[in-house]
């Protein structure tokens, strides 16, 4: 098969569409013929050498795919060769084939195309595991999403709204603000001109920025507020006022999806299938696709993501 390999850490130009060995399924795995994969910020970090591949994972980037099952490993039940699926991965999605644990497979939501569904697994699993399973967002609470126009952000706004929360998001510019409002945001704040901390308090914050946002995140939390940090685009460190944290009875959760054990991923995927797929099928959560490019043009897709002008997901398609 062919896959996107990383020659060495660096810019988008280090991504190469090369011939590699086909994957073979181990016990409990299936092989999926990949129809499409979707970009995530973690792919860029991996390309730059800032996100090491977990032991035993595929060296190729790509944390989610859609496609058809072409082979079953020993012990796999409930799935058949030819089934159309989308899947959460630990890596290897930028390829023509990928091996994936059966517990990380999802059916294709009714009304969603096979290619388009590649945009679902990582964002829906990230959002649900953080704002519901970890931060316990409840109806009537106020939710703040940093970066509401991105692949995770566009999903988070809609799921939080479907759960009955008041939704606030930071975005970059009026066009992204308008799109966020269309997706359910009650209030949009331009991070270049507005201080989100002045518009709190927030019961739950989902943060992809990190760094200097930490102090303002804590300051703007409500009593018993919960902050989930899933990204570090602004850096690895930030000031933390422990007194504010203690007296608010606030909690801070740092989480990542990729390095979770397979059993945890399977539990998250099962909840997503049960709770989020109905939201997609009844129209409460829309799939937002910004662009589609051929898999071989992964370098150009990375340039588009790094430019930061996209809304929603960027797909890589095997043509």
Describe the model.
This protein is of the alpha/beta class and 319 residues long. Helices cover 27% and strands 27% of the residues. The chain contains 8 helices and 15 strands. It has helices spanning 41-47, 121-134, 151-162, 174-182, 213-220, 242-247, 262-281, 298-307, and strands spanning 2-6, 15-19, 29-38, 64-72, 84-88, 97-101, 105-107, 142-146, 166-171, 187-190, 202-207, 221-229, 251-254, 289-294, 313-317. Strands 3, 4, 5, 6, 7, 14 and 15 form a 7-stranded mixed beta sheet that branches. Strands 10-9-8-11-12-13 form a 6-stranded parallel beta sheet, with helices on both faces. Strands 1-2 form a two-stranded antiparallel sheet. Strand 14 (289-294), helix 8 and strand 15 (313-317) form a beta-alpha-beta unit. Helix 2 crosses helix 3 and helix 2 crosses helix 7 (262-281). The chain is globular, with a radius of gyration of 19 Å. The two termini are 14 Å apart. The model has no long low-confidence stretch (mean pLDDT 96).
Task: Furnish the topology, listing elements before pairings.
Elements: E1 2-6, E2 15-19, E3 29-38, H1 41-47, E4 64-72, E5 84-88, E6 97-101, E7 105-107, H2 121-134, E8 142-146, H3 151-162, E9 166-171, H4 174-182, E10 187-190, E11 202-207, H5 213-220, E12 221-229, H6 242-247, E13 251-254, H7 262-281, E14 289-294, H8 298-307, E15 313-317
Parallel strand pairs: 8-9, 8-11, 9-10, 11-12, 12-13, 14-15
Antiparallel strand pairs: 1-2, 3-4, 3-6, 3-15, 4-5, 5-7
Helix pairs in contact: 2-3, 2-7
